Amino acid sequence: MTELLAGPIADRHTALGASFAEFGGWNMPVSYAGTVAEHTAVREAVGIFDVSHLGKALVAGPGAAAFINRTLTNDLGKIEVGKAQYTMCCTPDGGVIDDLITYLVSDDEVFLIPNAANTPAVIAALEAVAPEGVTITDQHRDYAVFAVQGPKSTEVLDALGLPTEMPYMAFADGTITVDGREIAMRVCRTGYTGEHGYEVLPAWDDAGVVFDALLAQVTERGGQAAGLGARDTLRTEMGYALHGHELSVDITPVQARSAWAVGWDKPEFFGRDALIAERAAGPARRLYGLLATGRGVPRADCTVHLEAGGPAIGVCTSGTFSPTLKQGIALAFIDVASGVKKGDEVVVDVRGRALNCTVVLPPFVQTHV
After folding, report:
1. Which whole-number Å values give the CA distances from 8 to 26, 76, 162, in the listed order?
2. What are the C-alpha distances in Å from 1 to residues 4, 5, 25, 29, 72?
3. CA 163, CA 150: separation in Å to the nearest integer?
4. Can you point out the beta strands (E) in the chain?
5. Dihedral pair phi/psi, residue 23, rounded to 5°
6. What is the helix (H) or strand (E) element at residue 218, kind and residue range?
7. Which of 221, 301, 328, 347 has the most CB atoms at less than 10 Å from its CB?
8. Would you tell me the crossing angle of helices 35-44 and 228-238 to the nearest 10 degrees?
9. Calpha distance 338→347 (Å, rounded)
């Protein structure tokens, strides 16, 4: 049995009373005070997540940004230095190896944050076609990542003197002073919750003192540490894709309604020909949201039907109880041939029990990014 990887502040999570579970090969804190309480803290005040398991990689060398623009889906030419961008690394047939964030540092430097388990595959795909002079360096354990999310997130960072004035999907470098020592970190105004927030990247070895400083400001404002459980309920309410569920090597951006992150006018990127062909022909399935109208919670792998007992027309990829709506919600792929559209009623088979749901287009709740 492979031993689970640990982040830089496992001792802090244990001291806070966290429960743990495996995620992407890492031992991750699932909850501290309870998922609903942590979810509510993020929606109403502020929460802090340790997401240091996320991958980090540096692409550097002459023309590094142009190289990334020839490989990943989104058009890096549409943003300027100091901005970040959501993008995907695809297979030749259009499946998604990973969805990730790119930080455009300069024409010759791009910083990547892939999903933890997919980091080696992303690096391998890039290294296979990297031009001479462009290097891809795995920096997985060089940096920690803390997501400070919620309406009071700006107050938390302001109290420590970190930059907060940048627009959405922009980043800036800053420092905090702890015990007379200046600690440097990068701050990006992004996140995975639908709330106004920031992701803070200090050096891995500085993670403990930075987390302590952030958590002190979070709790002072009525917030709390939040774990993987709340991260999942928050992102599902927003309809944000999770790789392995709504995106995978068997699921394309066109099917997953992520085509907005594809630079269709670019002459080159991984999977371009296959994606253009699928876009023109129309996908065989599309991602929708399902809002339970009956009592019950749809879960991943539950089948979707036009009527109870009828043939399956789709499958749920994620499902949870929405603490904000107090209803069951799900994301599901539904066959286009079924004719189902927004506003229609469908039935989800939840362990043999029929659960009526309305077909919607996420997000399920209002975004405040």
Report:
1. 11, 31, 21
2. 9, 12, 11, 20, 34
3. 16
4. 19-23, 26-31, 47-50, 57-60, 84-90, 96-106, 109-113, 135-138, 146-149, 171-178, 181-188, 197-202, 224-225, 285-292, 303-305, 312-322, 327-335, 345-350, 353-360
5. -150, 115
6. helix 207-220
7. 328
8. 60
9. 13
Most distant CA atoms of the chain, gap in Å: 68
**pLDDT at 2 > cutoff 90:** no
Are β-strands 327-335 and 345-350 bridged in parallel, bridged antiparallel, or unpaired?
Answer: unpaired
Token pair of 302 as six digits: 């539950």
Q: What is the pLDDT of residues 230-255, one digit of tens each?
A: 999 999 999 999 999 999 999 999 99
Tokens of 276: 């253009």
Q: How far is CA 147 from CA 93, 156, 188, in A?
A: 33, 12, 9
Give the strands of the sheet with 181-188, arranged side by side. 171-178, 181-188, 197-202, 146-149, 47-50, 224-225
**Number of other residues whose CB lies within 10 A of the CB of residue 73:** 26
DSSP 253-278: TTTTT-GGGS-TT-S--TTHHHHHHH
* Chain-centre distance for alpha carbon 327: 23
Q: Of 275, 255, 274, 252, which is closest to residue 334 (Cα–Cα)?
A: 255
pLDDT at 159 over 90: yes
Q: Provide φ and ψ at 173, rounded to 5°.
A: -95, 145
Alpha-carbon distance 195 to 185, whole Å? 22
Interatomic CA distance for residues 144 and 160, integer angstroms:
18
Instruction: Note whether 152 and 41 are within 8 A (CB).
Output: no
Tokens of 41: 């803290």
Average pLDDT over residues 129-152: 98
* Short-list 116, 137, 120, CA closest to 64: 137
For residues 189 and 174, the answer to whether their CB atoms sit within 8 Å is no
User: Where residue 1 falls among pLDDT bands split at 50, 70, 90?
Assistant: low
Across the range 327-348, mean pLDDT stands at 98
Q: Which residues contact 77 (CB under 8 A, 6 or more apart)?
A: 69, 263
Q: What is the pLDDT of residues 4-14, one digit of tens each?
A: 999 999 999 99
**Strand 197-202 to 146-149 pairing:** antiparallel
Give yes or no for a contact between 59 and 112, defined as CB atoms under 8 angstroms apart: yes
